[in-house]
Amino acid sequence: MDEMRNIARAYYGRASEDEKNTIQEFFKKLDANGDGKVTLMEFNKSVSSWYSDETIFRQLDTTGDGTLDFDEVLPLYYMEEKVSPPKCDGCRDLLAGLYFTCWLCFGKGNGSTDLCCSCYNRGSFEHEHALSNFVDNHSLVVKFRIQTNDAQSEEKVRNICVRQFICS
Length: 168
Ligand SMILES: [Zn+2]
Ligand SMILES: [Zn+2]
Known about the structure:
By secondary structure, the chain is mostly helical. Helix content is about 45%, strand content about 10%.
């Protein structure tokens, strides 16, 4: 969630006035009684089912006071409206930072498979393709950028070794 929070703050810092208003409206919608704080009950009522679970609420609540203020809600807005981070197909954690995805399934419309670093490292996940076909999400972006410019480069990018990544 720390990475998601940094991403959200960076986006908000550069947001247009219109978008800032939209985000304030998003907060007001969550804060049903208008006291400037979102309780777990208010959260569960308004947040889409994908995110409405207590673990995510606790992760958003950095001050640990049991309610969310505007700054604490920011990552939620970006998760819901912009970034839509996938969940790990192993442990079901939200994937906001570095993660691995099956290269062969990606963009094929049969549902891609995404894994967090520790599930990838453990290799305990069942998937039709070998884990050596997985790439990290940063390499994936590079691959598609190069593919657009030069189709011949695809093979080069394919050889970016994901195992060079050391996940903490
Ligand atoms: Zn996982
Ligand atoms: Zn696959």
